[in-house]
Amino acid sequence: MILVTGATGFLGMILARQLAEQNLHFRCIKRATSVIPDELKPYQHLIEWREADILDDNALEDAFTGITQVYHCAAWVSFKQADKEPMIKTNVAGTANVVNLCLQYGARLVHVSSIAAIGRGKPDELINEKHHLEETPANNIYSISKLESEMEVWRGIAEGLDAVIVNPSVIIGASAGVDGSGKIFETVRQGMNFYTTGTCGFVDVEDVARVMIMLMDSDITAERFIVNAENWNYKDLITTAANFLNVKAPTRQAKPWMMEIAWRTAATLAGITGKDPAIDKIAAQSATETQNYDNSKLKTAIGFNYKPIWETVREICIRLNKAS
């Protein structure tokens, strides 16, 4: 029996749908306040839903009865300093609970980490799975939570856990709507005057789910894999999206000092309004950095071919245009 955590989220929903498309019967957990996505409602005859928070030991253990495979997608994603302590506690302690139950029931685990848990590379160097964060970045609370959560999985592996870790780059897809990574494209649709010169890796959410299923069904264990389709310059990504959205692409470069002013101004406004900042410090700094990721380890391991990012961008923009 398969268990999926975080099945009401962006990646978890797509993973659950792909499992259902294989006509598999499986179990998903959700919090009492979470809503089952419309995309999964046609497959309710295949999905057994259980209410369980990953921090609730008793409810989570009940959900593990008869489980042999676990896809751990659940995580709290936030870049707000106010969320630092509760988010780290939720993600790390929740992952520890999942790991402990996998050990107890002998279940195989595929854990979703992030490139945020991988170290940075030197100029002109591709970042691979051997890059490790030399120190925890104090201001990047998301990176802290993903790194420490991944450490719980490695702790389990040392204790005999059969597990594989995936480290996706920026996950994009039309089903994100205007939330998460979808904000990038919605911002372009509304109009942007500036572009940044940084680079980063991007991957389609459908590909991440496919990779997870292929790794689960493989005999690979005690490994981590960067899941990254292509490395894109932010200017090229924004320009491509603008062309698909039929809006004007930005023509002015945002210098690092301008991004510094932007995040500080956004933080001040957020403090006044109580809303999330339009841009945070980590995003502002990352937007001008060159970070390119090596995807060769995964390709060699399972022979995976990624969907071109421009196709995903086109699909995202088509949906945004229809919704506007």
TrEMBL record:
Q: Which GO terms describe its cellular component?
A: cytoplasm
Q: Cross-referenced Pfam families, in alphabetical order?
A: Epimerase
Which is one GO molecular function term here?
A: aldehyde dehydrogenase (NAD+) activity
What positions does the domain NAD-dependent epimerase/dehydratase occupy?
Answer: 2-218
Highest taxon of the lineage: Bacteria
Q: Which InterPro entries does the record associate with it?
A: Epimerase_deHydtase (IPR001509), NAD(P)-bd_dom_sf (IPR036291), NAD(P)-dependent_oxidoreduct (IPR051783)
Q: What is this protein called?
A: NAD-dependent epimerase/dehydratase family protein
